[in-house]
């Protein structure tokens, strides 16, 4: 079967392919194809597989039992029929040699295993573990099958392998977890086969798909006009976009050419292996692919997958008989369809039609049902090494054999570390660049684990130097996020809280040298924002060296905004309240009713020419201004205004104290945050006995 090929650029007949000198072709490709293997640094020496130790492996790895020999004979007979009926098809991957040099049927290499880690019960956890734990090794020849397939036992021990090794290990974990998973031998693009993700957008930066808005079924509903736009302004904007200098156009064209990947002469010929997960088991809604190198989920119509030769699991082997000239987008994955898939061991109750070359045995030793062949032969094999014993908890928690893993994306770099590898709890860092050469940093995102201060993410804007820290619930100060450029006081801080845990409902506060703004949610008094204007400190006291907390900034003005309280009349429900502390003016603005156009207002001013005394309220027609056109007569009564002013004076005194408390709280947050960064502590679960023992030895 021929996979999807670039027939327009590279025309190649089967006769030419057979006579192709592969070594010369690959030598020519070295000058044209540059592969960035993100998971394998260039300074790491190559691994010598011929020097591995196989003495610890059981005898079933070094010899074939009688049942296995019969199975190989059946597979050989199937291959002879296959090559006779399909002479133009590429060779199948059926029985390569293992690490001991013994031929093994590929289905017997799979070891369904459920490892004792909660994350590995789901396909995403299994895929992430395999791509992080193993080091990717490219195939020796990108267009031919490997000559060997090592067992998952050896692959786990040495933590490296090619795409087939990755796939067999991942498929073993998925089948053990209950998924209907299969290993796939097929063809893929150069970027997927070589783990080159420099042309892809980092998954952490991908925007979620937009959900289309449902159209209103009521066609008679009034459609309000959109925001008006000036046609003249739109024309001027279009002219400016058209008036681009020729030099800028050439630069853009050069950038596009640089970002566009080079043509691959081996497009459609590159051998790759990946995992197929069918829908049904484990409530999988839709069939999908998993790329074992990245652990990413792919649709079966993804254009990166160019064709399939065969698939297998631990029970059977299927050959694809469908046309793959359009890639995998039109393939049917109904394995019971004998027209689309040729099965090696027919799953029926009838006796096998495939003759064997082995001598006749007793009827008790013969396998009457081919569908149970692998099950019966597998049970007769000697037990293999348990994969669980090869993966202790310490190695599972530290999957990166080289200390960390680096993945290069388009204008981004992702770095990963194991938990507790860094003293500050750093486990991931994403660096975003402005250019394709990754020289100018724009933003850095970092993720943390096991920190006692509950910090789990940090964003740093390299252009503005703005740092934003994010905390999990449970922080002693109820912090949710903290944005700052410096931990010095009054330099511009924005703090977000878990407001449901606070009594006052405060969810956000912004403070700088001249103002403070607080935002509230779910309050009984319907307050949703408070804005405070602050003056400059006394310079004489600053020169005298008096502390900042003792030399407070004077409060100039306090503004409060309230939502509508439906239980009150509009002319009694305050919308805005302003306390001009220095000018001694209080201004109230009330909500509007549905039919009103002008809001009611009340203003209390200071009496001119009279010295203000504490706890004294002087009210007259001269220092009070009211405008309440829709209110009743009681609101125009001086006694009512006097009581209102008395309440506002008490409220103003209380607000001033709350402002001082807010300033003290911000200072405390900065002090605690600075201390947490200077003395970072990592927490260890009480169930992690190995790590707690290491921690105890370090403290002794």
Automatic annotation (TrEMBL):
**Alphabetically ordered keywords of this record:** Cell projection, Cilium, Coiled coil, Cytoplasm, Cytoskeleton, Differentiation, Flagellum, Spermatogenesis
Query: Does the record bear Transcription regulation in its keywords?
Result: no
Q: Which residues form the Dynein regulatory complex subunit 7 MORN domain?
A: 402-685
Q: Which GO terms describe its biological process?
A: cell differentiation; flagellated sperm motility; spermatogenesis
Q: Name one GO cellular component term.
A: motile cilium
Record-linked InterPro entries = CEPT76/DRC7_peptidase-like_dom, DRC7/lobo, MORN_DRC7, Papain-like_cys_pep_sf
Q: Where is the CEP76/DRC7 peptidase-like domain?
A: 271-344
SUPFAM superfamilies cross-referenced by the UniProt entry? Cysteine proteinases
Acidic residues bias locations:
1-14, 243-257
Q: Which domain of life is it from?
A: Eukaryota
Question: Do the record's keywords include RNA-binding?
Answer: no
Provide the protein's localization: Cytoplasm, Cytoskeleton, Flagellum axoneme
Region of interest (Disordered), ranges = 1-21, 235-260
Give the family this protein belongs to, as stated in its UniProt record: Belongs to the DRC7 family.
Q: What is this protein called?
A: Dynein regulatory complex subunit 7
The primary gene name is: Drc7
């Amino acid at each position: 079967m021929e996979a999807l090929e670039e027939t327009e650029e590279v025309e190649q007949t089967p006769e030419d392919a057979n006579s192709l000198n592969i070594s010369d072709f690959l030598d020519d490709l070295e000058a044209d194809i540059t592969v960035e293997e993100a998971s394998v640094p260039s300074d790491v020496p190559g691994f010598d597989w011929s020097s591995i130790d196989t003495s610890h492996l059981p005898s079933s790895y070094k010899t074939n039992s009688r049942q296995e020999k019969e199975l190989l004979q059946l597979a050989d007979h199937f291959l002879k029929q296959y090559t006779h009926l399909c002479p133009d098809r590429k060779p199948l991957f059926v029985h390569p040699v293992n690490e001991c040099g013994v031929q093994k049927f590929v289905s017997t290499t799979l070891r369904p295993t459920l490892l004792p880690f909660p994350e590995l019960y789901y396909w995403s956890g299994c895929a992430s573990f395999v791509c992080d734990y193993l080091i990717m090794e490219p195939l020796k020849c990108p267009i031919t099958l490997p000559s060997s397939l090592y067992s998952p036992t050896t692959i786990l021990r040495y933590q490296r392998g090619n795409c087939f090794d990755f796939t067999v290990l991942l498929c073993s974990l998925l089948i053990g977890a209950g998924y209907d998973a299969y290993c796939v031998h097929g063809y893929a693009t150069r970027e997927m086969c070589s783990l080159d993700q420099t042309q892809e957008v980092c998954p952490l930066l991908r925007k979620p798909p937009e959900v289309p808005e449902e159209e209103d079924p009521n066609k008679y509903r009034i459609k309000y006009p959109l925001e008006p736009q000036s046609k003249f302004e739109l024309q001027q904007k279009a002219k400016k976009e058209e008036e681009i200098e020729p030099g800028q156009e050439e630069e853009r064209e050069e950038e596009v050419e640089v970002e566009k990947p080079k043509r691959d002469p081996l497009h459609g010929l590159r051998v790759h292996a990946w995992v197929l997960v069918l829908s049904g088991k484990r409530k999988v809604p839709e069939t999908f692919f998993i790329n074992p190198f990245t652990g990413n989920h792919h649709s079966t119509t993804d254009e990166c997958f160019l064709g399939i030769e065969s698939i297998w699991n631990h029970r059977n082997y299927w050959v694809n008989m469908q046309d793959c000239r359009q890639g995998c987008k039109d393939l049917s994955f109904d394995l019971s369809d004998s027209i689309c898939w040729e099965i090696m061991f027919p799953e029926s109750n009838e006796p096998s039609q495939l003759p064997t070359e082995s001598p006749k045995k007793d009827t008790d030793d013969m396998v009457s049902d081919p569908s149970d062949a692998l099950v019966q032969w597998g049970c007769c094999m000697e037990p293999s090494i348990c994969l669980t014993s090869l993966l202790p908890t310490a190695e599972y928690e530290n999957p990166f054999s080289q200390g960390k893993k680096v993945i290069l994306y388009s204008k981004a770099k992702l770095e990963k570390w194991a938990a507790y590898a860094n003293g500050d709890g750093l486990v991931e860092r994403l660096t975003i660049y402005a250019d394709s050469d990754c020289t100018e940093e724009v933003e850095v995102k970092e993720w943390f684990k096991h920190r006692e201060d509950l910090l789990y993410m940090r964003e740093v804007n390299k252009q503005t130097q703005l740092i934003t820290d994010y905390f999990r619930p449970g922080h002693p100060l109820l912090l949710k996020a903290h944005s700052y450029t410096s931990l010095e006081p009054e330099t511009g801080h924005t703090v977000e809280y878990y407001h449901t845990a606070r009594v006052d409902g405060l969810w956000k506060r912004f403070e700088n040298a001249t103002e403070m703004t607080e935002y509230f949610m779910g309050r009984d008094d319907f307050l949703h924002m408070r804005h405070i204007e602050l003056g400059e400190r006394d310079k004489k006291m600053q020169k005298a060296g008096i502390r900042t907390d003792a030399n407070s900034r004077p409060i100039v003005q306090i503004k409060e905004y309230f939502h509508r309280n439906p239980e009150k009349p509009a002319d009694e429900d305050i919308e805005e309240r302003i306390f001009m502390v220095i000018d001694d003016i209080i201004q109230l603005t009330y909500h509007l009713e549905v039919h009103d156009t002008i809001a009611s207002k009340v203003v209390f001013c200071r009496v001119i020419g009279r010295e203000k005394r504490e706890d004294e309220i002087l009210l007259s027609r001269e220092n009070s201004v009211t405008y309440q056109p829709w209110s009743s007569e009681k609101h125009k009564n001086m006694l009512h205004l006097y009581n209102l002013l008395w309440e506002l004076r008490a409220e103003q005194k209380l607000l001033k104290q709350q402002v001082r408390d807010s300033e003290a709280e911000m200072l405390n947050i900065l002090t605690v945050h600075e201390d947490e960064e200077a003395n970072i502590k990592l927490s260890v679960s009480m169930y992690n006995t190995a790590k707690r023992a290491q921690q105890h030895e370090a403290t002794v």
